[in-house]
Specification:
With 473 residues, the chain is an alpha/beta fold. It has three domains: 52 residues, no CATH class; 179 residues, 2-Layer Sandwich (Endonuclease, Chain A); 165 residues, Endonuclease, Chain A. Helices cover 43% and strands 19% of the residues. It is built from 18 helices and 17 strands. The strands form two sheets. It has a 15-stranded mixed β-sheet with strand order 4-3-2-5-6-8-1-9-16-15-14-10-11-12-17, with helices on both faces. Strands 7-13 form a two-stranded parallel ribbon. β14 and β15 form a beta hairpin. α1 packs antiparallel against α2, α6 runs parallel beside α7 and α13 packs across α18. The radius of gyration is 22 Å and the shape is globular. It starts with a helix and ends in a 5-residue tail after the last helix.
């Protein structure tokens, strides 16, 4: 017993010293201090796995990360097929310039964009496009799950491979943990190149577990692209639990912006597979004008110089003059995001927040709920979707700009995950997404400040405890 107590005391002291010396922000450091002190041993383990700021430590010395930065230095801005966009709107100009600097992709004109509002519409469109592939199919998903969609995809890819269409697949090692080796082998046996992203190996486990690839990307022949929030899982087309169907938004892209999206995949594939770099005309063809929509791809990750996803969201909130509408399943804002929302709300910007009433995570749900009282006091309208599980990551600003992608409003998407959003500079599409957003709000429950602040002590305690753990989310 004395040995255990002594070990606990030593580990606690070392953890506290590490938090003080290497904590990235005071509020986050305080949260970790409380977790370590209140939850013996468990708090220390959580901090070691999820709390250590590995941007300053070994994660950023790992061979792959050094190579990723070398890749950026070598290929950033080279041979990128850019077309100059001259924004008349200063807000658009400012936002696009910021994201070009932080995420390295320019706003590309002349795109066709189709907004896909649910799983059935998304997969019907995806499979129709895949059937037309002639040269290659590139897929990247956080979650691959076996089921009806997986079987349909497998059959289609098998047919395409017989017709000499190349197939490359990336999946996240944690997000797709339920994908059996047998299923992966099936894909490999038919000729698909399949690789996990950041697999968990002994020796690097603690330094990679907390950094996941959350992207959802499909590229067909270098000309057609899909991205958004939908994974390869049957829960997007039929209810698989008490959460119901996962309600999400996805995008079909045809045009020059696909080049930017494809480069995100190519970089990830290069480091997951160690195969040859695909930065050639065979995979990055010249793309002619396909429409009149301006699209900018925003890619963020823990190896980037700037937190581009967070910067995108904060800038959109700061630039809003009339309204900012946000749909997100994990709304757990950091201090900077909260302050941006406060300033916007107090400046008279109409802010609506659409979130799920149900959640796949107790911790995420109550951590999110802990912010609502303050947001409601500021006059922000909060709607809880009562049917199914809202999983869309959408922002609409002033009927001019819309963002659809994989990035959540939480620490994980801002700091730990590899994410991809598509920013659409088009009033017609923004208004269309806005119309769907308002329709969803009408079918949801609007929270009332006076009622909400009277919630039970038990509920407030649950929220407070969950908020302690918000740095994990």
């Amino acid at each position: 017993m004395i040995i255990i107590i002594s070990l606990y005391c030593i580990l606690t002291i070392l953890s506290i010293l590490h938090i003080i010396l290497y904590g990235s922000r005071p509020i986050k450091s305080l949260s970790w201090l409380l977790i370590v002190l209140i939850f013996p041993f468990i708090g220390i383990v959580l901090y070691i796995v999820f709390g250590i700021n590995r941007r300053r430590l070994k994660f950023f010395k790992l061979k792959q990360t050094v190579r990723r930065r070398l890749y950026d230095n070598t290929y950033r801005g080279k041979s990128v097929k850019e077309q100059q966009v001259h924004f008349k709107n200063k807000k658009n100009q400012k936002l696009s310039k910021l994201l070009r600097s932080s995420s390295n992709f320019v706003a590309q004109p002349a795109n066709e964009v189709v907004v896909l509002q649910n799983g059935k519409e998304t997969f019907d469109t995806i499979f129709e496009a895949l059937q037309k592939a002639e040269k290659f199919i590139h897929l990247q998903y956080y979650i691959f799950e076996e089921g009806e969609l997986f079987d349909k995809l497998y059959s289609l890819l098998k047919e395409k491979l017989k017709n000499n269409v190349e197939v490359r697949i990336l999946y996240d090692a944690i997000g797709s943990y339920a994908l059996r080796k047998k299923a992966i082998k099936k894909l490999k046996d038919i000729g698909a190149n399949v690789y996990p992203i950041m697999p968990l190996h002994f020796g690097s486990f603690l330094f990679t577990l907390n950094y996941r690839n959350h992207r959802k990307i499909i590229i067909i022949d270098g000309r057609i692209g899909f991205t958004g929030g939908v994974n390869i899982s049957d829960k997007y087309i039929s209810p698989k639990s008490e959460l119901g169907i996962w309600d999400d938004t996805h995008l079909y892209l045809n045009g020059p912006a696909v080049d930017s999206l494809h480069r995100v995949f190519i970089k990830d594939y290069y480091f997951a597979s160690n195969e040859e770099l695909l930065l050639t005309n065979n995979y990055l063809p010249e793309i002619e004008k396909q429409g009149d929509v301006v699209v900018q791809i925003v890619a963020g990750g823990p190896d980037a110089d700037h937190p581009s996803i967070m910067q995108q969201y904060i800038t959109m909130i700061n630039l809003a003059e009339e309204y900012i509408y946000i749909s997100n399943p994990y709304f757990i804002p950091n201090n900077a995001m909260l302050e941006a929302l406060r300033i916007a709300a107090l400046s008279g910007v109409n802010i609506k927040l659409l979130v799920p009433k149900k959640s796949d995570s107790w911790l995420a749900k109550y951590s999110m709920l802990s912010f609502f009282e303050e947001l409601l006091f500021l006059g922000i309208e909060i709607y809880q979707q009562k049917d199914d599980f809202l999983h869309s990551k959408v922002i609409i600003m002033d009927g001019e700009i819309a963002s659809v992608g994989s990035g959540n409003f939480d620490h994980r998407s801002f700091e730990h995950n590899f994410e991809t959003n598509a920013l659409i500079y088009d009033s017609q599409i923004a208004e269309s997404i806005c119309t769907d957003f308002i329709a969803d709000c009408k079918e949801s429950v609007l929270l009332n400040y006076e009622t909400y602040k009277k919630r039970s002590l038990k509920r407030k305690l649950s929220e407070g405890i969950a908020r302690f753990f918000s740095p994990l989310l």
